């Protein structure tokens, strides 16, 4: 199992549209091979900061998702809403203690 954490800062005028597009993207990803879970996070101290925590069976599954039409459609919606580059870091899951109740 692999986890990718992506961080980005949004433009104030685009935050609501970005959040909506990312909700659509996560909903579409749920049906893709290898998808396990995702969290969309909003900064507590920096309300324009976002983090996406995606959990996939493999990096290859994630990569295939990035070539999917549903992913590309939301990419077009996100253009110009971010104040800077996204920064992504991969992690291999060592232990997963999540349950259905979380």
TrEMBL record:
Keyword annotations: Monooxygenase, Oxidoreductase
Residues of the ABM domain: 2-91
Record-linked PROSITE patterns: ABM
GO molecular function: monooxygenase activity
Cited InterPro entries: ABM_dom, Dimeric_a/b-barrel
Bilayer-spanning residue ranges: none
Protein name: Antibiotic biosynthesis monooxygenase
